[in-house]
Amino acid sequence: MASRTAAPVSAGRGSLLILLAAMLWGTTGTAQALAPVGATPLAVGTLRLAVGGGALVLVSALRGTLHVRHWRHPAALLAAAGVAGYQASFFGGVARTGVAVGTLVAIGSAPVIAGIVETFLSGRRPAPRWWAATGTAIAGSALLLAGDGGWNADAAGVLLAVTAGASFAVYTVASKSLLQRLSPDAAIATTFFTGALVLSPVLFTADFRWALEPRGLAVALHLGLVATALAYVLYVRGLTGVTAAAAATLTLAEPMTAGLLSALVLGERLAPLSYFGAAMVLVALVMLSLPDRGQRRAGGAPPRALRRPRPRGGPPAGAGGRGARALAAASPP
């Protein structure tokens, strides 16, 4: 029996869910900074997938929505490859080219690549508002992450960061396809558990003694359960209401959250230009989250494209008789 798919959410609610997910992702940098000495980026990323993926599999198994055949679906394998590829390439890119450049290239390239891939697969081009919002958000992220102007561009690091952006774009587009066949919790559990298996060799080579300390355990549980399991549940649920390109752009709320947390929690000082960049990102996200003109008709008649046309020669709307009842029975709900 196939997994029951979830009913799509509205575009406004989908945007809100994805923004909440991105804000939770924005806590990962602060959490890693608070981890004990010895917590390497790759070890933290692998443990994050293991804890989060294990929790998602457990919940999905208890709800009876997880089946072995889900792992064989091409979209599930692509999404899992995107998850594992992002963890490995992002941390590698940041290590080589710095946090500012690595993060900017990764999160800035993801929406553009997702828009290109989705256009190629569906034949639908992103709306002009998406291009305007994406450009504004990327420019704002550049100002936000520039900080005091310390940039360290490394060719290999930038290439790894682009790979991370492409990996996230692949995950987003593949998950959007997977949601047409699986429920959100089954889709997330399948992709993340498989992605954790791909990175499982790290479990045998990295030092995880830091995770046994109270502070290390708290960091691991937060990253796995909150910044991964809960965040991706919100993200995938939101994907049912927005396009993959719009979803990837909305995730640019992550660096804005990370920058503000670094100032509020870690005591880092942000340059005035960084606050201006955060404001630009916020404006872009609001611009993209606003419903289309047709979606603002709350409680009124549906948009013209959604109205059911009256068959030629058929009875007028509201007409009684056997013909009207037969037509109503044959029409889709």
Task: Provide a compact summary of the structure.
The protein is an all-alpha fold and 333 residues long. The chain has helices at 11-25, 28-33, 41-62, 74-97, 99-122, 128-146, 155-178, 184-198, 214-239, 244-250, 253-264, 272-289, 322-330.
Mind explaining what this structure looks like?
- The protein is mostly helical.
- The protein has helices spanning 11-25, 28-33, 41-62, 74-97, 99-122, 128-146, 155-178, 184-198, 214-239, 244-250, 253-264, 272-289, 322-330.
- Helix 5 crosses helix 7 and helix 6 runs antiparallel to helix 12.
- The model is unreliable at 294-333 (pLDDT under 50).
Query: Biggest sheet, open or closed, and with what strands and sense?
Result: none
Order of SSEs, N→C?
Answer: HHHHHHHHHHHHH
Strand content: under 5%
Mean pLDDT rating: 77
The Rg value, from CA coordinates, equals 22 Å
**Structural class given helices, strands, pairing?**
mainly alpha
Q: How far is the N terminus from the C terminus?
A: 24 Å
In terms of topology, how is this protein built?
Elements lengths: L10 H15 L2 H6 L7 H22 L11 H24 L1 H24 L5 H19 L8 H24 L5 H15 L15 H26 L4 H7 L2 H12 L7 H18 L32 H9 L3
Helix pairs in contact: 1-9, 1-11, 3-4, 3-8, 3-9, 4-5, 4-7, 4-8, 5-6, 5-7, 5-10, 6-12, 7-10, 8-9
